[in-house]
Design goal:
single chain, mainly alpha, Rossmann fold, 3-stranded parallel β-sheet, elongated
Length: 488
């Protein structure tokens, strides 16, 4: 399928835009749309633009606008020009609406909302679909002039011509709408404010947008917008309508499926690189079975050929798995600055305390991330290594310390063997404990598991010798002494 961002005469630098309404948080669906626009722009050497559609004054808030900025910045989706605020362009929207009227592409409609409601109710009573009947388009010119002179309020309606609107969608292929199915729609309300389609087209023309990439819930808007582009004498951009995002139950993603705000996933310890990787695969495939990708790799591979028509499924468990892969891949130098604030927020340590022992801290995170899927997992696992005292998990106690007296005896013997070790290294500690197990004719695990609970309070941890080394000699022996006292 031809790329709409270029013509046969000369290539045009693609210009794409993300245009959220600041009426709430940055939804993962919006973030996916922003990402696809950004990837296309970066892949083609184009430009990614941001427009805040804040014309709904009653619902638009500064907090929502800030949340959009923060979400995009966290993801690393930077825009190339100054942010456009739709509300600042109302005068241009009005002028464009008046141009349509002056050119004969639109007409004044004097029907009041009450009159339209009555006709809509009457059509419903007849079990018919209501369509505006163009009665105001049939008014004599002198009647229209008289009403205007008298100050009678009017909206401006676009006069839909006969024919069919067609376009080659980058996702869905050829799409056609018979114009007879499109009623004459309002472009300017009676208070001269623009409706959505009028404002969007006016802004996209002014911003020189060459490709409109958005959710496929906007497909029904596209024929009207194409009509407006043509009537205003502007080039019609290309269109790409992305599939909806569903939950694992096959229904449209909503709060009932859990978190839907990008900020929520940031708070849950998801890495931005993993979030981008996950979102990229919601409606796009790089080909083959490839799943784990860095952002530069996504930019290189992204193209309309990989865009998919079917609805994408947002699976939180898949996101966590993918996040675990990115945790393992990320260089420690990049991961540590993301883990430190989480540990501090949890009250486990201070940034200064971690900075004072950089090698130990790096070794700790490197060890814990192997079993973690999120940064929050690392925080939970880190508690035994950062706190002076620990709490014993009841399930761990019930499983590994069933016989308190016998467990205390094993721990005491283990403590003596460890204390007598010539050095505090994994190799020396393993040799000491395995020799003890052999002398008692028991499996080494019979020593390791009770010891793990004594050291961490848990049944699951990194390897027991790594745990001992990370805790250090004095703290490890102190933990074992505390467990013996607890058992006796």
């Amino acid at each position: 399928m031809p790329d709409p961002s270029a013509t046969s005469d000369a290539p045009v630098r693609p210009r794409l835009r993300f245009a959220p309404s600041p009426t709430g948080y940055l939804h993962v669906g919006g973030a996916r749309t922003a990402l696809f626009n950004w990837l296309y722009a970066r892949h083609t050497g184009g430009q990614f633009l941001l427009r805040i559609e804040d014309t709904d004054r009653a619902r638009s808030t500064e907090a929502s606008t800030r949340a959009i900025f923060e979400g995009l910045q966290w993801l690393g989706l930077t825009w190339d020009e100054e942010v456009v605020y739709q509300g600042a362009n109302l005068e241009r929207h009005r002028r464009d609406g008046e141009r349509l009227l002056a050119a004969g592409a639109a007409y004044r409609c004097f029907c009041t909302p009450e009159e339209l409601d009555e006709r809509r109710a009457a059509a419903e009573a007849r079990r018919e679909t209501f369509r505006y009947d163009r009665r105001c388009d049939r008014l004599p010119v002198d009647d229209v002039e008289r009403r205007v002179a008298a100050g009678m309020p009017y909206a401006i309606r676009f006069r839909v011509p006969a024919g069919t609107i067609e376009w080659d969608d980058l996702v869905h292929g050829r799409i056609a709408f018979p114009n007879k199915d499109i009623e004459d729609f309002v472009v300017l309300r009676s208070d001269a404010t623009p409706v959505y389609n009028m404002a969007v087209v006016s802004d996209d023309i002014a911003m020189r947008v060459t490709l409109v990439m958005r959710g496929d819930d906007h497909i029904s808007n596209t024929p009207k917008q194409i009509l407006l582009y043509r009537a205003l004498g502007a080039d019609v951009p290309g269109f790409a309508h992305l599939p909806m995002i569903h939950g694992t139950d096959g229904k449209k993603l909503s709060k009932r499926h859990g978190a839907t705000a990008v900020a929520d996933y940031q708070g849950q310890g998801i890495l931005p690189t993993a979030m981008l990787n996950f979102l990229a695969l919601l409606g796009w495939s790089p080909g083959g079975d490839r799943e784990i990708m860095t952002l530069p790799e996504m930019v290189e591979l992204f193209g309309p050929g990989g865009l998919q028509r079917k609805a994408a499924v947002f699976d939180p468990q898949k996101l966590e798995w993918m996040n675990g892969q990115h945790l393992s891949m990320m260089p420690l130098g990049e991961l540590l600055p993301r883990v430190t604030p989480a540990l501090v927020r949890a009250g486990l340590t201070t940034a200064d305390a971690l900075a004072a022992q950089p090698e130990w801290y790096a070794a700790l995170v490197d060890l814990l991330r192997v079993r973690a899927r999120t940064i929050n997992d690392i925080v939970r696992q880190a508690e035994p290594y950062l706190c002076e005292t620990i709490t014993y998990d009841p399930e761990a106690v019930a499983k590994q310390w069933k016989d308190p007296a016998a467990s205390a005896a094993l721990l005491e013997a283990s403590r003596d063997a460890l204390a007598a070790s010539p050095s505090w290294t994994p190799e020396a500690l393993e040799s000491a404990l395995r020799a003890l197990a052999e002398s008692r004719a028991i499996a080494a695990g019979k020593l390791f598991q009770p010891l793990r609970v004594a050291l961490t309070g848990l049944t699951v941890s990194p390897g027991i010798f790594d745990v001992l080394v990370l805790l250090g000699r004095d703290r490890a022996l102190s933990r074992i002494d505390a467990a013996i006292r607890h058992l006796r």
